[in-house]
Specification:
This protein is mostly beta strands. The chain folds into 2 domains: 118 residues, Immunoglobulin-like (Sandwich), CATH 2.60.40.1120; 105 residues, Immunoglobulin-like. It is 2% helix and 39% strand. The chain has 1 helix and 17 strands. The strands form 5 sheets. Strands 2, 3, 5, 6 and 7 form a 5-stranded antiparallel β-sheet that branches. The protein is globular and about 60 Å long. The model has no long low-confidence stretch (mean pLDDT 85).
């Protein structure tokens, strides 16, 4: 079991926030300033900022978030949220390991960081951006993308996510580095919505649950628009 307590900078508990655990096997350390990684496990914080959880993970990173009370939906951090990544003495995300003998881990008391500000953090990103449309050409609101890095010999882990699109349909999918990624909608239903892509051989259109993209480090190719079914 893993236990601990998280406080705000004013020494008050991060009451009713969420503590998140990121399995080393499924992706790199969390880095909200560069990309949004989905946690493998989460646990609620009680009114005193305390938590306890048992997870089937050998090595992991730890983070936490306290959503702004005006947020309508939960997800990646937005401006006004309070975020934390537990770091080591060098200022890097700290990698924890479960004891081989099965003993519990007590993380102690951790103090959370500052308010999250996407505009301040957004520098030197590797990402893809554009607008998501429905087939009728209206802009898709409330749509979220997830991505998995394609690595030979390893299973796809869809651990990178965009924020929900607003009424403009614009999205920014931030990624940890150069490479090829498989992208899909965060909660694709069996019957849709799916991506609509053009078949270059006969100019017809196909529906696909996933698409593959390639990105270069430190670049954000603009205008990578997507069409989805309703």
């Amino acid at each position: 079991m893993i236990t601990g307590r998280i406080l705000l900078e004013n020494s008050k508990p991060m009451a009713h926030g969420i503590v998140a655990f990121f399995d080393k096997k499924t992706g790199p350390a969390p880095n909200p300033s560069q990309y949004f990684r989905l946690p493998d496990h989460i646990a609620p914080l009680d009114k005193e900022g305390k938590f306890s959880i048992t997870i089937p993970t050998e090595q992991f990173y730890v983070g936490a978030i306290l959503f702004h009370p005006d947020r309508e939906s939960k997800g990646p951090p937005q401006k006004g949220d309070i975020t934390l990544t537990v770091k080591d003495e060098m200022g890097k995300p700290k990698l924890f390991a479960m004891p081989a003998n099965g003993d519990d881990i007590h993380l102690g008391t951790v103090v959370a960081g500052n308010l999250y500000d996407l505009e301040e953090e957004q520098t030197q990103l590797t990402a893809v951006s554009g607008t998501i449309f429905y087939r009728n050409k209206s802009r898709a609101e409330g749509v979220k993308l997830v991505a998995a890095k394609n690595s030979p010999g390893t299973a796809k882990a869809f651990v990178y996510t965009s924020q929900d699109t607003e009424s403009s349909g614009d999205y920014l999918l931030r990624l940890p580095g150069a490479g090829t990624y498989t992208v899909r909608l965060s909660k694709p239903e069996t019957s849709g919505p799916h991506f609509v892509v053009k078949n270059e051989e006969n100019n017809d259109y196909l529906e696909k649950k996933e698409i593959v993209i390639s990105v270069k480090k430190g670049q954000i190719p603009d205008g990578f628009d997507l069409i989805i079914t309703v």
